[in-house]
Hints:
Elements: E1 4-9, E2 14-27, E3 30-35, E4 41-45, E5 48-54, E6 63-67, E7 70-74, E8 78-82, E9 85-87, H1 92-95
Amino acid sequence: MASFKLEVMTPSKRFYSGEVEHIIVTTQDGKEGFMADHEWTCKLLDAGQLRIKEKDSPEGEWLVASAAGGFLDMKKDAVVYIDAIEWDRGHEKRKSRHISK
């Protein structure tokens, strides 16, 4: 499956950076998914889950984080700017390779 680069930024740090196949965010209109080659868009985000399907990850395996508001800028790649975010329970082991200090 095609992939794209995803950056998730907070006001103080880069929360996530990686090659992904699919993301699902909570917008002001509800949950919306984005995949490679999606047309350009900018979306306001509400509080809710951010789900990340990493490139070449096993079928059905997603990273999940709880996020406050922000916005998504989707072009060739995607950048998600989040006011506050934290990994949901059970994702601590995998997250450590993506956090930039």
